[in-house]
Structures are given as structure tokens and as C-alpha cells.
Amino acid sequence: MPDGAGRARVAGLLRLGGWAGGELVAAVPLLAGLAVWELAGWMLGFRFLPPFSRVLATAVGMIAGGELMAPLGASLLSLAAGYLPAAGLGVTLGLLMGRSRGLEFVLSPYLNAFMATPRIALVPILYIVLGLNRAVQAVVVFLGAFFVIVWSTMRGVRSADRDHVEMARAFGATKRQVMWKILLPSALPLTLAGLRLGIGQAIRAMIAAEMFIAVFGLGALLRTYGGRFDAERLLAVLLVVVAVALVCALAAARLDRHLTAWSRTPR
Amino acid sequence: MAWEGAALTSGSLLLPTVEATAWRLIELAGTGELWHALWVSNHAALLGFALAGAIGVPLGLAMGRWPSADWFFDPYLNVMLATPMPAAIPVVIMVAGLGLPARVLVVVLFALATIVFHARAGFRLVGWELLEMSSAFGASEWQLWRKVVLRGAAPGIWLGVRLGAIRAVSAMVTIELLLVAVGMGRLILDAQGSLDAAGLFASVMVIVAESVLLAHLFQRFEQDASQAAMGMAAE
Amino acid sequence: MITIESARVRFASTEGGAPMVALADVSLTIARGEFLCILGPSGCGKTTLLKAMMGLVPLDSGQIRIGSHAVTGPGADRAMVFQNYALLPWADVTANIAFGLELRGASREECARQAAHWIKAVGLGGFEHHLPRQLSGGMQQRVGLARALAVEPEILLMDEPFGAVDAQTRRLLQEDLLDLMQRSGKTVVFVTHSMEEAVLLGDRVALMSPRPGRVREVIEVGLTRPRTASVEREPRFTELKEYLWERLRAMRDEAADA
Ligand SMILES: Nc1ncnc2c1ncn2[C@@H]1O[C@H](COP(=O)(O)OP(=O)(O)O)[C@@H](O)[C@H]1O
Ligand SMILES: [Mg+2]
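A: This is the predicted complex of the input protein with adenosine-5'-diphosphate.
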């Protein structure tokens, strides 16, 4: 099963959508959508659909007025506190599992179960076990990102070309050298793909958990305004959330492209 | 096993033993409470998932086939992929209320982008050579789709469907926990509220089991499809 | 001198049937400084034999010695050129060529200096910082050759190195290889499935047959050195080529009858 075609397939499928070049042309459809929103907002006059310009103005006002700063800060802090350890530990465990079939055999059922399980379902358990505090947010973020990073890194190590390993051995490479000079670089594209998927999942888990507790972070704010049927503010916060998520996704994509240019197929 | 050990040694009220959880599970199943909750939850998930598939697969394939479709929808796809969908739930509720339609809509929102993305990726893996070859042999657009695209893109489609199913379950639990306390979400919240740790674990376990089962099921389809697409008989 | 004595290699078959005999009792001696070509249909164990000499595939029985030392693993005295190039896709031409030196702990400057030297020697000037995917097949194999030569092995093992390039490129590579090797005094074992290539390059040609893999015959080429591509016009060249073709065809008929 781990043949060349299969590997290329996994690598291809894991890579998120392309954001390369021509960003202006790419923005046209989105701008068109926003224009429709704006028009509909003015013409239909639904309470839940204020025009985009008003939502944008509200968002800017909330940021300028400082109203958004504390929740945004709380969210970003828990994001960093959960994601960074998830990345570090996830890559490490993924590398170990990639090297050891035994470890893979023992741990992969758990890995698959956790990847398939909605992380939000674990939040009530976490709060009952750990209590209602901010550390739980970091744990939730961690759980959101960790497993996909482990899985992807492991696949990355397994995707290493056997011919490369054999070549290195022919040139006298030690086990250590094979690890550092062949397996690690080979694993890089899928590891980065995992980190990209991980940041998305982390943000998703973070928002869901914040909404569940409704005490801190952007998620709590969403719930407050949703409860008040304050469409303008609700959509303004949503806009900020989407912006944060997009910035994270773009940053991760840029890093990925920068580090793995070599793995792109030639034109 | 690690769980049992931890529970026994800590002797905690909050971390139930496997035994207690199992008993509670049987109890819940016996009263029919569990089955009713499962039905309520999955009803919405199933409808939403089917809808997401019905929109997502054709859309993704179309984006693969026609560059203009890709140009138009790609930015939306990227935004949807990046957006943490739980954040959209309050908006959905404002628009569609608290009933079944709202829950179905949330499931669609959760599952759609993944399905579109992988259907398109699946199409791209078919490769232009095969499409050109088929046109060179005079295949009509219809034949092209039936004989080449659907077979070649099947692994990607099934992968998207599997991930979409996982997202659908996730959507169902998320909305039930966050805003509309019905179904399995209700069971979890009740258990949490009454500090019934065993009940809480039992309900969560049911969700885990469902997710894993679904993932396994679709993985089978996916493997068969990819073996068929690569010319290996699925024995 | 390389001595191969009754080498046997079996691979466990994937379907759990009888093991596959890749090498059955192969014996061969290769003199220092000799250019030996191994010729045979695909699947006859050529790669396995070469990898056994490299120390990558252990023997089930028998022995391979270099001088008086038995081969137990890869060693600095040997280097290999791979059929599919096996270049590292993330490393540029310079880094790929210096790979073997780097593994041996050579300094950065030493690596750079050696790489620069070999880039010139194999005619890749101007491509120092290209990635493998930006090179044609022929150029990629030049990198593979330079990587092997850069570690200054006494013995060069080449596994169908020109098998995957087009005919014209192959011809240029063959001529350049003749140029590089004839004065070097290195021992070369060169696997090929091309009769012309075997006769053009080799001092001797070892003919192998499949199922199970054995060496059937060793033929002296006896064309003068230094050689250039013009030997192809000599009657001896044509004669040898035809002889090899007959032998290969006879082998095929044998297999068909069996
Ligand atoms: N690692 C391996 N595992 C199992 N069988 C192998 C392996 N390597 C080679 N073989 C088998 O051994 C035989 C000889 O292979 P090889 O030496 O690659 O032949 P050649 O290079 O002459 O084409 C073939 O039938 C091949 O299928
Ligand atoms: Mg071979």
C-alpha cells in the first residue's frame, strides 16, 4: 500500500487550497459576494442582515473602543498556550511513531479514535475533571491540534523514499544520520501539512469551548451578542474571528510554501 | 486500561471507573433514553450530511473540471475551510431559529467545505492526460464523467465524505452542547449538571463510538475506491 | 580484487509461498582496475548482486571479499550509482554531490571544494544550485555519478545508470564515462541490459540468466583501450553483440520450454 502513487495522493489531499499569486484577481469573487451582502442588507432590511459596511464599522469601532481587546487577548493567549506545545509534542511523537512500528501499532487506535471524535464532546469532561479555569482552554486547544499533527508527521516519516534510505546507507550513513539527513527532510512536507491542519482545528476547538463556557474569549462574546439578537455586533465579532483564522491559515501556508518548495512537482 | 488504572488509584468522584461507566451505559440503553437521544441527534446530522454531500461533491468536481468555476468558488472555499464554524452557530440561530432546520444548516456548514475540497482534489488526481486521451478517443462530456472522472476521483470523493461525516457528527454535538440542548448533547449536559460522572463518560463514549464507526465504514469505501482507481482488484 | 564465492540470496516471497531465489550460487572474480559489465534480462538478479557487493543485501551463504576483507556492510572503498538516481529532492546539485563527504564528516569548505571540482568534471557547470527536479534525467545521473566519484572509491558499482535516459543522452553519458574512467585505474562493475553498452564499456561481460539468478558465462571483450565510440565500427564489436544476442535469446527459449 505505501507505494509512490499512494504517497503522492496523501500529500496532495492534505495540502489546503492554494493562495498563490494573483491575489487581486482572486479577490474579485469575494468582493462580489460582499457587494451582494451590502445591497441585500440595505434593500431587504432583515434584522439579522445588516449591511456589510455597518458590520465593518462596528468591528472597527469595537476594536478601537477596546471592547474587543480583552476577549481577543484571552483567545490568542490560550491559542498559543495550547498550540505551541501541541506542535512540539505532536511532531516529536509523530517522529517516534514513524520510526517504530511497535509504537504505531499500540498508539494508532487511540490516535484514530481521537481524530474522529468531536473534541467539543470532551470539553464537559475536561471541565468536570479540571475545574472551570483558563488552563482548560489551553488543554482544549492542545487536544484540537495534537492528534492530526502526530498523524501527519508519522505519515511523513513513513513517506520517506526507501531508495533514499538505501542510498544513504550505501554512502555509510549511521542510523542517526539516516534520521537527520533523510527521514526528517522527507517528513517535512506532511509535517507542515499537519501543522496547518492543526492550527485550523485548534482555532475551531478554541471557539467551540469558549462558546460552551461563555465566560472568556471571543467565543463568549459571540454567545452574548447572539443571545441578545444583536446582529451587528455578532457579525462584527464573527468577522474578527474569521480574520484571525485566515491570518493563521495564511501564515502557516506561507511557511509551508517557503520550506517545501523542493517538493512541488516541476511544471 | 490506563483510564481504569487512573480512576482506581485516584479514587476520585469525578473520574468514574470503567465498570461504573459501563453500568450507566447499560442503564441508559435500557430506559430507551439513549436511543431516543441518538435518534434526535442523528436525524439532523443525517439530513445535513446528505445535503452537504449532494451540494459538495458536484461542486468540487465542477471546480476541478472548469477553471472558471474554480476561480469563482475557490476564495469562498478557502474562507470556509479556515473559518471556525462553531462561531457561525449564533448567526444560524438568529436566521433559522432553534428547530430542526437550524441544526441541519449547521451540519451543512461544518461538512460542506471539506467535501468540496476533497472532491476537487480527487478530480485533479485524475490528471489531464487521461482526460485528453478520452477526448482524443471521442468521449462525450457525459462519457468522460461516467467512465473516467467518477472512477478516478472516487478516492478523493470518499475521503471527503469520510471527513465530512466526522465533521457532521462534530456539528451535531457542538450545536446541541452550545445552543439547542436536545439529543446526545442534552444527555451530556444533564449528566454534567447533576455531576453524574459515569453518565457523562457513558454519553461521550457513545459519541466516540459512533464517530469511530462511521470513520471506519467510510474508510473501507475509500480504500476500495482507491485500489480500483489504481487498477488493483479489491479482493 | 573482488572475489565472489558461491553467493546465494533468497527473498521471502510476498504471498507466503516458496522463497524467491534471486542469486543461486554465483561465483565471479573481478580484477583490480577492471571494467566488468553484468548483462541479463530484467529480474535475473543483477541489482541484487550489485547490492550484495555494496553490502546492502546480506548473503544467505557464500562470501564476497574485497582484497582479503569479507564484505559485511557498506564501506568507504565502494560507491554506488543508482538506476533511479536516488537524488535528494530537497538538496541542490552541490549538496547532493557532497552528500557522501558530508556523511563522513568533511568540513563545509572541503565539501564545497570537492563538489565544485566534480561539478566541472561531469560537465554541470552553471547548475550548482539547481534542484534535482529542475534537471533532465541525463543531468540528474551526472549528479549521481559525481556524488559517487566524490568519495574517491576504489570500486564503483553502477546499476543500469543510463537505463532511464533517452538514446542520445545515453550515448553522451557513455562517452563521458569512458573518458572519466579509463585513466582512473578504478574497478567498475556496471550493470546493464543493453548489449551495445556492455561491449562498448566492458573489459569483460558477465552474462546472467533468471530463475534462479546465475552467471552463465563470462566473455572477454578484447577491444583495445583507450576506447572511443568509434569501436562500434569494428567487426569484433558487431560479432560480440550478435553473440550476446544469440545467448540471450537461447536463454529465453530455455525459459519458455521449461
Ligand atoms: N527486496 C526484495 N524482496 C523480495 N524480492 C526481491 C527483492 N529485491 C529483488 N527481488 C526479486 O529478486 C529477483 C531479482 O531482482 P533484481 O536483482 O532486482 O533483478 P534485476 O536487477 O536483474 O532486474 C526479482 O525476481 C525480484 O522480484
Ligand atoms: Mg535492477
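The pocket of magnesium ion (ligand 2) is lined by residues C 46-47, 160 (CB under 6 Å). Chain A has eleven helices and no strands.
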